[in-house]
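Task card 7
Instruction: Convert sequence to structure tokens.
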Amino acid sequence: MTVPLVVGLDGSEASLAAVDWAAGEAVRHGVPLHLVHVTPGDGDTRALIGAATERVRRCAPTVPVTSEVLHADPAGALIGKGHEAFALVLGSRGLGDLDAMLLGSVGLAVAARAECPVVVVRGAAEHRRTAFGSVVVGVENGEGSGTAVAFAFREAQVRHCGLVVVHAWTAPPVAHATAQAPSWALEAHRRPPAQVLDDALRGLTERYGDVPVTRRVIEGPARRELLDAASAADLLIVGAPRRHGHPGLQLGLIGHAMLHHAPCPVAVVPRS
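Output:
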């Protein structure tokens, strides 16, 4: 059985935008859509589920749609659904979020703990409607980016668009270094920045030969460079390395920043 793309509903405009985005994603990947409304109460949810289902049928009539209402803690229930999901899709804000919060508490908790990719649908309509023809993925100097890069190639392929792979690096203030040859003695064990990118792409450029790839090795803060690249992107993808023994802490500072500030939908992909 094909695992579904799961969408979290709460009746907010942001969650309905997530439904629209997920319907397009389900078409691209040929997977069914499962709408989940999680509520701690016993109120009538038929209208919400019905409206969301009708939205899917209008914009993606070939996508099989199922729905479910759960009376439980929203974050915990959605994380549970992620055990057997192609991905979880959420709106950038919920009904109960304070105006000052840039990302809802439920969305942040799910992105931090889910075992499958989590997409938070952010940004203006042009970023949510594949108007730019570009997918961006960030590569870190560590073990958390491999699954994210493979996910990014698949997304670019099904969208028939280009992939921008970004690795931002910084040297210690007293160091003299280049992207090809870092020279600081205390970090000689680290791979040169250009090598980090080469290693992340090894095998994937051949497997996805139809995906145009743009490589960016940039000296500068990763947060700034990824947000800049995302300004002309339909989807931004970041990896989330597992932190064993620290449940709920798989998101690093970069992941948090992208979920709060990115101008386009953000996919957080946990390491396999």
